[in-house]
Predict the 3D structure of the following.
Amino acid sequence: MNERKKGIVLSGMRPTGRLHLGNFLGALTNWVDLQEKYRCYFEIADWHALMSNYENPEMIREHSMDMACIWLAAGIDPEKSVLFRQSDIPEHLELYFILSSITPLGWLERCPTYKEALSNIESNDIRNHAFLGYPVLQAADIALYRADSVPVGKDQLPHLEMTREIVRRFNHLYSTDIMVEPKEILTVVKKLKGVDGKKMSKSYGNTIFITENSENIKRKVKSMITDPARIKISDRGHPDVCSVYDYHKIFSKKCVKDIEKKCRNAQIGCVKCKDILTENLEKKISPIREKYIYYRENPQKVNKILKEGNRRASIAAEKNLREFRKAMKYA
Ligand code: TRP
Ligand code: SF4
């Protein structure tokens, strides 16, 4: 590990399903870049998955493995970063309990993500004890490695704010400064919409997966909604209302200006325009897909990487937890 690296980063994802291009643009590319500057811990947050998906623990196991393969394929480098599985490091739950004890119930009940989850009838039944403590476990994840920087999307900001509050409360209660108040590294990306123009989400079935095969890429791009006012090729198009154009902005940086002009001047047809997008998506996805397939076919390699990651995570976790308990005079 490069000692010149500045701060400590921790981030995680819940292994609840296949990752799509939105996740890739949102979190993963950011993580890959952060590896150069920070000492990074990337966590498979499988306890966080269990709280809501407790009916299918074996699926969580399967998705954990799949997610690790995708991370590796996307460029998370086990030489540079610590890649580990939360449930393999028992200190997470120990610190979770300590932090649970000092977290007022009201903070959790008022948490906007909790209220939203409760109001979402489609979500699994999450009216259980553990789920209320979701942000406390997340705070434990972060505090355990004394991470000072946490790359997250906007949706996670309430959890980060709560982490800071819990950390401050710990330090105040035990007159210490051992725990680190983390700041967010906000992931700013243009939100990638689903192929139907709605929010990209697995539950809508409008996603393109990071590891999508060529045929599916083609089929999904074909199904994309274009400018509805454009019926004949000779009609001038309006790229700003077209999902294909939204994708071009992200995946066809070199020719997006040209496409816009040609669309507005009716010099390119939607079929051709989609072909160009298919090609560019394929270029982006295929190297990741190939590496992904390699790791899926060599699970022993992935397990070895995870084992080594767990070992390194454990060293930090054990040491820090010991110090936290000492600070509490509860060693
Ligand atoms: N709650 C995060 C999410 O759903 C996942 C997560 C778990 C996490 N522990 C974390 C993110 C610690 C950042 C830091 O995206
Ligand atoms: Fe959309 Fe391209 Fe058709 Fe224009 S030419 S409406 S950008 S698909």
